Amino acid sequence: MMPYMQRDALIQASQFQSTGARTPPGLLVQQLSLSYPGNASALVDVNLDIPAGAVTAVIGPSGCGKSTLLRCFNRMNDTIDGCRYSGAIYLGDSNVLAQSTDLTVLRRRVGMVFQRPNPFAKSIYDNVAYGPRIGGIRRKRDLDEIVERALRDVALWDEVADRLHTGALRLSLGQQQRLVLARTIAIEPEVLLLDEPASSLDPISTLKIEELIYELKHTYTIIIVTHNMQQAARVSDWTAFMNGGKLVEFDETDRIFTNPLERATEDYITGRYG
Predict the structure, then answer these.
(1) 92 lies in a domain?
(2) How many domains is the chain partitioned into structurally?
(3) pLDDT digits (tens, 9 = 90+) for 18-58
């Protein structure tokens, strides 16, 4: 398997040009299974049609395969030696799991934000400009526009506009997470993967992240993994419940939380287990 490299998320300069209004793609998962060395099955025959331009929450008890599924969408599981896939994941017309998939292009199309903020030990400006610079953007005016647009999109511009060249690590955790999100969207992906993006944040910062998710879904297809049932109910349009590596139920969020079809879903949502 090809190891994950930070540069995989970056693209050529011509691809940084803003395309204006666009329709993000959905994701179609067909008979997806994944096993680790020793035949440990993490995902078993998952079929899922993730709508475009909406927020899909993936919920379930610890170890059920939520994060594993999320990392399939940009092939992050490739970092684990001996990891084996079967099935298919279609992003538009492209099968993400095909041997011919260019991981650089894939990870440009599918951005990811992790559980804990991971800004670079650089300035606020340089964090956001990092991807565009490696992609070939050199003109200061172009970089300035990209940085400002990304920071505005995550509602951080007004808080940092007068200190763009100070260290990113001096920001609060909530600001750092929004900065990481700005760094991710600066290269204009089509899909955003959010792995417990607010789990380490205080309630006010969590609310800001949730508000951003609502705003960004008009531009991106968003998939969020969360243990927080209230958060899933607040931010998502669709919810997938997983258990034991299997997809138990997938439906509109309102229906999942008010009238689930499966008893296991109801038991988990109401706190009877998990």
Answers:
(1) yes
(2) 1
(3) 444 567 889 999 999 999 887 688 999 999 999 999 999 99
